[in-house]
Amino acid sequence: MSLEFFVTSLIVVLLPGTGVIYTLAVGLGRGFRASLAAAFGCTLGIVPAALASIIGLAALLHTSAVAFQLIKYLGVLYLFYMAWGILKDGGAMDVAAEKSAKSDFGIAVTGTLINVLNPKLSLFFLAFLPQFLPANAANAGIELAKLALAFMAMTFVVFVGYGACAALARDYVIRRPAVMAWIKRCFATAFGALGAKLALSD
């Protein structure tokens, strides 16, 4: 694996997306342990896209408009659901509902679904991974799997870092309900905007 792969992957992982926003929201609302579950779920959600790109199913999504549109709009609906879930009582960022909070397993499942229902993730892997495939690779499938696993490991580490930062800021926002309410609206708006962007994309 080249230095170019690690640098490019790090830049991609650091860019704020649905997984980053979800991990930050959970870290602020539930604390570091819950953010670990979110980070793990978001990382696990990469597996189907990575497998699709490795075995060539991503090409099917690219050529089949119906398949792509179906997955896309499921993703749109889920992002809007996430926006609503953040704002409602007992949502991901509702600190007051900590005793009845969603379990770590539930948080991880939500994180997984966020990435599974992102059709562009498979297209990203289809375009991204082959660029770093060694020209003399004896087994392209194994090499692509190694690159995908390295990308997932970087994703998990970076998301854990995001979650830790959010958890550190948690004590501050808990003591300031107005600040927490403003942050919840910002995160809900972000999920809504991402859903709208996905809905309008080709």
From TrEMBL:
Its main location: membrane. Belongs to the Rht family. Keywords: Cell membrane, Membrane, Transmembrane, Transmembrane helix. It is a multi-pass membrane protein. It comes from the Bacteria. It is found in: Cell membrane. This is LysE family transporter. The chain crosses the membrane at residues 6-29, 36-60, 66-84, 105-128, 148-169. Pfam families: LysE (PF01810). It comes from Ruegeria atlantica.
